[in-house]
Design a protein that fits this description.
binds zinc ion, 7 helices, alpha/beta, 262 residues
Amino acid sequence: MICPPLTITFLGTGTSSGVPMIGCTCVVCTSSDKKDKRLRSSILVQSETTTIVVDTTPDFRYQMLRAQVKGLDAIIFTHPHKDHVAGLDDVRAFNFFQHKAMPLYANSLTEEAIKREFAYAFADKKYPGIPELILNTIDDQPFYIGDIPVIPVEVWHHKMPVLGYRFGNFTYITDANRIEEAEKEKIKGSDIIILNALRKETHISHYSLDEAIAEVKGLCIPQGYFTHISHQLGTHQSVSVGLPKGIALSYDDLVLYTAAVS
Ligand SMILES: [Zn+2]
Ligand SMILES: [Zn+2]
Ligand SMILES: [Zn+2]
């Protein structure tokens, strides 16, 4: 699929509790390094004409303000966990300024959760000022949002299917710890992959640091960035120095640029 050059902004790179975690006095949560301040995981994907957000975290409002997002064409969702959908109500600002409903793209599992958790937005009798949403159900078929091609990649978050996404030669996968071979074929050839890496110890539904490194190497992707990071991983500085060439921890506000694919 033809893809224009893209700008990718990390809106958040933390696990579900964020970093710092409320009440925690560990070395990471008390670090003064800006790179140890992680909002919940989300990215902004932009071409010259189209802007997409992946997931609406509990920090969505502040993420839109911090990244100075003035217009948003669509939101695509990875899975229904609260740290990926909770901020959806704040699309109201875009409804107001853009004078239209916000298109959402999600699989049926996530769509069910959105309808349940934001039932007031889908009620027969709507009170004024609620979010205006248009649900678009997606499966494994590629689609376009504006001029940006989106290829869903199904991955496993323990037993929950989660959608990762490939945009041109850039792939974003959060909340996973297993990718089947057939889905890996959709990822191979990417120049950059973002993958979740929760902490050093293994976890039932997230890649550990070593598992994430092994996946990037196995996929032969030259550049890997890790996200959805827990305070248990360690400080950005202390973990970064030990990473193999081509692999880095992401951090909030990091911006990547991708080449066009023709
Ligand atoms: Zn998550
Ligand atoms: Zn901590
Ligand atoms: Zn999750």
